[in-house]
Specification:
mainly alpha; two-stranded antiparallel ribbon; disordered N terminus; binds 2-acetamido-2-deoxy-beta-D-glucopyranose
């Protein structure tokens, strides 16, 4: 439809993940289960941190904020993806497409900054322990979170302004199960080479740069841990390896989606699913199952809830 030159595209067609009914049922169960897990797991982390005063340290407050962002990030795409599995016409209005894209990048940008903040928190705690309490105070924490959201919005707007007024007149098949800048730009009826560069630079190079920066920072912190006390070594290793795992999980798909110059649809789908479905579920799992304080706090919270209901 809308193949006529000069006509205006008011809606886009999203790609179905699969044609076979058996696979649709399987994916429906798989994604639904994961999404419920994402909601419960991340809510549980947020509630545990908010209600347990033992966890009112910057590390856990940042973690709770990461959970909130993860929940938001996966909510931008997963519910729509699940409801589209069985529908035969997967049409998204121009408006909703823009909104989806916008929020993906607000949340993605905020998550990136929170991951940096978490690395900074560990850096100060481990490499500058004497200054930790003065540097990472509640005010600093609040500042970092506010900065994360502002940077997220700026990051999203700075790409949005280029896309919102693009002329769309021809094909409207997104070739993906959600709307995102690289795909939408390709559908515009004008030469978009420089725009593609803007998106690659803004989303791609930023995520690539941040990824390498974070990995180098964590290696530096690990080296410092090794040189210092042997006492807290194993605990620090567990915390840091959890952080590094999350960084790798979050940034690998980002780099692939925005920097890799030869996108293939199947790899695109796979990496998008990792970022919207797998990472937001693994974050709570990684942080809670491997963190003793968190486990103790959760048990305390459950006990309190049970006691209240008695
Ligand atoms: C996020 O961080 C802010 C500022 O430090 C804090 O007040 C808030 O409770 C955190 N959010 C969650 C869900 O824990």
């Amino acid at each position: 439809m809308d193949q006529v030159n000069g006509s205006v595209v008011t809606e886009f067609v999203l790609l179905g993940l699969t044609q076979s009914l058996g696979m649709q049922v399987f994916l429906f169960l798989f994604f639904s289960l994961f999404y419920v897990g994402i909601i419960l797991g991340n809510l549980f982390i947020m509630l545990t941190v908010i209600f347990d005063s033992h966890l009112h340290s910057p590390m856990y407050i940042l973690l709770a904020n990461l959970s909130f962002i993860d929940l938001g990030l996966s909510s931008t795409t997963v519910p729509r993806m699940i409801s589209d599995l069985f529908s035969s016409c997967k049409i998204i209005s121009f408006h909703n497409c823009m909104i989806q894209m916008f929020f993906i990048h607000v949340m993605g940008g905020a998550e990136l900054v929170v991951l940096i903040a978490m690395a900074y928190d560990r850096y100060t705690a481990i490499c500058k322990p004497l200054h930790y309490l003065t540097t990472m105070n509640p005010k600093m924490c609040m500042l970092l979170i506010v900065a994360a959201w502002i940077i997220g919005v700026v990051h999203a707007v700075s790409q949005f302004v280029f896309v919102i007024n693009l002329p769309f007149c021809g094909p409207n098949n997104m070739g993906s199960f959600y709307c995102d800048f690289p795909r939408v730009i390709k559908l515009a009826c004008m030469d978009t080479y420089s725009l593609e560069f803007v998106v690659t630079a803004n989303s791609g190079f930023i995520s690539m740069g941040t990824f390498f920066f974070l990995i180098v920072s964590y290696i530096f912190i690990l080296i410092t841990v090794r040189q210092h006390s042997a006492k807290n070594l194993s605990k620090a290793f567990i915390t840091l390896s959890a952080h590094i795992t999350v960084v790798v999980l979050f940034f690998t798909p980002c780099m692939f989606l925005y920097v890799w110059p030869f996108p293939t649809k199947s790899m695109d789908k796979f990496f998008a699913i990792v970022d919207f479905v797998i990472t937001p579920l693994l974050n709570p799992a990684i942080y809670t199952l491997r963190n003793r304080d968190m486990k103790v706090a959760m048990r305390r919270l459950i006990r309190q809830v049970v006691n209240i209901r008695k």
